[in-house]
Design brief:
alpha/beta, 28 helices
């Protein structure tokens, strides 16, 4: 879970010292004064080293050793006695025990009888019975199991009630690299050592609530056992003391990490974790054959996006998500709909300037007559009235990014077809205002739709893949949106949804209202391709012939641009291209350079024109089902966020709070409806220091966020406020917090895995909440500041009480005057808005759907968004004393419906 990054927090906190340690780890010895330690197999090697060192640090030690050989034969008390003598000679306290580890209760009783308690158990005892598997006897297997696995179980089982009663304990199991990786001649030993790891991991979970911390080491050290399998010079370098240093750390009261596996030896220390590939998921309900698995083997085995499950719930996570995802949408060898649909491409970037705009305009046939002043403004940056970017340039940056990914062999998962199968079917472009003459862009692309158009015996059938691409400038303002429909020949027939089949944008059965003809230059494709479409089909004669064409064909998007010019020249007011809002076309036939394009146009309304394009020479329609929409007014450029003052940026850093995080979660739910229907769980958050409670109700619908325990929680998470914020910032790992007891989960523990969606919460929404709370300050670690839009929805709404005469009627009258004086404001919203005012109650309808917009008292059922606030809050907004963000974050403004509409109502502020 990471909702905002460390870069938003300043200054960075220094790591705190663990209990029992000073800030300088080298200035305080890890002591065990008063602690009682049992070490099995402590007569030699590692066990002896552990015993001597822990005794030196103040521990009272039970030295257990049966005294047999390294193969488990024989018995003697001398080994344990010798170590006890060494400890006592050095001034320490120790007693010997000679019992087998299978008599663990006797070993633990020795500790209780001698010292009255037991704090630490080191399961170290072990033997070797190395032999190849073909020669291994039952005795070889059973004896290894009894000493390593059963012995560790019996000792731990005897120690467990003692440690539970005193609410304290530390247990270390001793595994081996043979158990982790396997080793020739050690099948029995490997079985036992990995079995110890499983035992340790399970006990780590059970012991946590009683402060019993359990871990495992996989040591390599010189001993009676290793000298039988390793060369002498390596054994000499593997001093047991290196391993003991780690055991001391794991056994100390300050150590709170549980469930760890550590490799250690020869001065090397490391922690191991499980790793698995991202894998391949086939949605349920779709048959999966061995051939399907074989075809996906690369995904099954690829490590490039490996995951690291840390608990059993994490191991089930892909399966749980697969169940929650619902039944398979189908697919075939060309398209895996489940893998591809909804895929978000990595963010792409590009930039353009006046030269690019001019090159594009020339590429779509503009300025054939260089004395045509309106056309000249499209290609000449020093035009007296100012250069204007032709709006359909908006297709170029987005399509070029897709082409670049194609050149690099990058594609969405589940797409397994080549260029030879695809045709450009349809194109939609919407712009949100006149194009700036230069911009640095970021593009967010996703697979929006996949339609099955049938197989038709593999001749004409296929699939349609719709890719949506939103393009933003550096400030985050969306400049234009593209939807590209690609027809994939022969890729249909899995029985999926065919998509919309009803014809759209069909011209009326009458003569067109306008017709424009223009001959395409013989070299037009070569000119247009300079804007970025490198496909050799449009330039290379031999390549074109290989695809069945007599010569290179014109780009469909070049014809698209020609048609847009023709329509705007006849129907945009004064031929001004800035009135362009959107265009949608269907490509029917290719155009050959040198042909004459005939664009026929029908006015459906003042803002909507239908058209089609034909080749005059061949008499064939090349573009059909096409329409262009116009703005009623030229949109005004939006004001960019103002930079914060230098004094502010140099001030102290402002920190997000947990309340800001939950406001960000509420905004995410508003932007992504249906989370409750998907997750079906109520989550309760109990924060400590300071105490606070939050309810994340995802039992159904879109989900809500409320402060307090607003509903009965199916899953409750308890955590300190500081740890919660570190977790959200990515500074603390949730599993580590859980494993150390800092994060407690009760109720339906498995449901906590469903909170994975919190990683998708937009950090800007959290920072917007912080900005509103602090009166506009939004300074991060680097001291930079930026304004952000209001968040989408509030957990709760409390109407502000009016402090004087009702102000709403006066404010709404002022709004009506502002709209009349600024005709372009309504065009920024293009929706019906319901305003509900309380204390005293009133309602107004703000209709921005056409013209300059209107304001009237009353209610409308079809409002795209409803804003509810108190009369006093409306007065603060109108006077500029409060912003939308401030009112929302303080529970004084509620937004229902289309949040994006509400975000465009900034002109409601400062009405006086």
């Amino acid at each position: 879970m990471r909702i905002f990054g460390p870069e938003t927090i300043s200054p960075s906190a220094q790591p705190k010292a663990e209990p029992g340690e000073k800030d300088d780890a080298m200035s305080k010895e890890l002591r065990f004064d008063g602690k009682v330690v049992v070490i099995t197999g402590a007569g030699n090697g590692l066990g002896r080293s552990h015993a001597l060192e822990l005794a030196r640090r103040g521990a009272k030690v039970v030295v257990n050793d049966l005294g047999g050989s390294h193969t488990g034969d024989g018995k003697s008390s001398s080994a344990a006695d010798k170590v006890v003598e060494e400890i006592k000679a050095a001034g320490g306290q120790a007693v010997a025990n000679y019992d087998s580890v299978e008599d663990g209760d006797k070993i633990v009783k020795t500790a209780i009888d001698a010292f009255g308690r037991l704090d630490v158990l080191v399961n170290n005892a072990g033997i070797l019975r190395d032999v190849s598997f073909a020669k291994m006897t039952d005795q070889d297997w059973d004896l290894i199991y009894r000493v390593h696995v059963r012995g560790a179980f019996k000792c731990s089982h005897a120690a467990w009630p003692v440690m539970r009663e005193q609410k304290y304990g530390r247990i270390v199991f001793t595994a081996s690299a043979a158990g982790i990786y396997g080793n020739f001649g050690q099948v029995n030993y490997a079985m036992a050592k990995l079995g110890l790891l499983g035992m340790s991991n399970a006990l780590a979970i059970e012991g946590q609530k009683s402060n019993i911390i359990v871990n495992t080491i996989a040591p390599i050290a010189g001993s009676r056992m290793t000298e039988t399998v390793l060369p002498p010079n390596l054994v000499a370098a593997l001093k047991p003391e290196y391993v003991t240093a780690l055991v001391v750390k794991l056994c100390h009261e300050s150590h709170e990490d549980a469930g760890g596996l550590y490799e250690v030896g020869g001065g090397f220390y490391s922690r191991l974790r499980w790793e698995r590939t991202r894998g391949k998921v086939f949605r349920l309900g779709r048959p999966v054959s061995a051939e399907d698995v074989a075809a996906s083997w690369k995904d099954v085995t690829a490590w490039d996006e490996a995951t690291h499950p840390t608990h059993i719930a994490g191991s089930l996570d892909p399966i749980i998500k697969n169940v929650e995802a619902g039944p398979s949408r189908g697919g075939n060898q060309f398209i895996d709909v489940d893998a591809a649909l909804g895929y978000q491409f990595p963010e792409m970037q590009s930039r353009y300037d006046e030269r690019d705009l001019a090159m594009y305009a020339l590429g779509i046939g503009a300025a054939e007559n260089p004395l045509d002043d309106k056309e000249l403004s499209l290609v000449y940056e020093m035009h007296g009235q100012g250069m204007r970017g032709f709006p359909t340039y908006g297709v170029i940056p987005a399509v070029n990014c897709i082409l670049q990914m194609g050149k690099e062999g990058k594609t969405a998962p589940g797409m397994s077809y080549g260029l030879d199968r695809i045709l450009h079917g349809e194109q939609y472009l919407e712009v949100y205002g006149p194009l700036p003459l230069k911009a640095k862009l970021k593009h967010a692309a996703r697979i929006k739709e996949i339609w099955d158009k049938g197989s038709d015996g593999g001749k004409k059938g296929g699939a349609v893949v719709v890719t949506a691409i939103d393009s933003f400038d550096e400030s985050g303002e969306r400049l234009f949106r593209n939807e590209t429909s690609t027809f994939v020949r022969g890729a249909g027939g899995w029985g999926g949804d065919r998509g919309p089949d009803a014809p759209v944008n069909v011209p009326p059965d009458r003569a067109p209202d306008a017709v424009v003809e223009q001959k395409v230059g013989q070299n037009q494709a070569l000119l247009y391709r300079l804007s970025g479409d490198w496909n050799p089909l449009h330039a290379d004669p031999s390549f074109a012939k290989a695809f069945g064409y007599e010569r290179p064909i014109l780009h469909g998007l070049c014809t698209f641009g020609y048609a847009a010019r023709h329509v705007l020249s006849r129907f945009a007011p004064s031929g001004d291209v800035r009135y362009f809002r959107s265009i949608k076309v269907r490509f029917v036939e290719p155009v050959v350079p040198g042909e004459t394009l005939v664009t026929e146009m029908w006015r459906e309304s003042d803002q909507r024109i239908l058209f089609r394009v034909s080749s005059k020479e061949r008499g064939k329609v090349v573009v059909s089902n096409a329409a262009i929409e116009l703005f009623t007014e030229i949109p005004r450029p939006k004001e960019k966020p103002q930079a914060q003052s230098q004094a502010q940026s140099q001030g102290a850093a402002v920190m997000p709070t947990s309340a800001d995080v939950f406001a960000g979660i509420a905004a995410y739910l508003a932007k992504n409806p249906g989370q409750g229907d998907r997750i079906k769980t109520v989550f309760g958050f109990r924060l400590k220091n300071p105490d606070a409670a939050w309810t994340l109700d995802l039992a159904g619908g879109n989900g809500t966020v409320a402060q307090g325990e607003a509903a009965a929680a199916g899953c409750t998470l308890e955590i300190a406020d500081a740890d919660f914020m570190d977790m959200c910032a990515g500074k603390s790992d949730p599993m580590k917090l859980f494993s150390t007891g800092k994060l407690k989960i009760s109720g339906n523990v498995m449901a906590s895995q469903k909170l994975d969606f919190l990683k998708k919460v937009d950090p800007s929404d959290v920072l917007a909440a912080m900005q509103a709370r602090t009166g506009g300050s939004r300074t991060g670690a680097g001291g930079s500041a930026a304004a952000t839009p209001a968040t989408a929805a509030a957990p709760k709404t409390t109407a502000a009480k009016a402090t004087g005469p009702a102000q709403a009627a006066r404010i709404l009258e002022a709004l009506g005057k502002r709209l009349a004086e600024n005709a372009g404001l309504a065009g920024e919203v293009r929706a019906l808005v319901q305003l509900v005012v309380t204390d005293p109650d009133g309602a107004w309808v703000l209709d921005f759907r056409q013209g300059a917009g209107t304001v009237k008292a009353g209610k409308e059922a079809d409002a795209a968004a409803t804003l509810t606030l108190g009369d006093g809050a409306l007065s603060e907004l109108a006077s500029g004393k409060a912003s939308f963000q401030h009112l929302y974050q303080h529970g004084q403004l509620r937004v229902d419906g289309d949040v994006s509409v509400a975000r465009r109502l900034t002109f409601l502020g400062n009405l006086g």
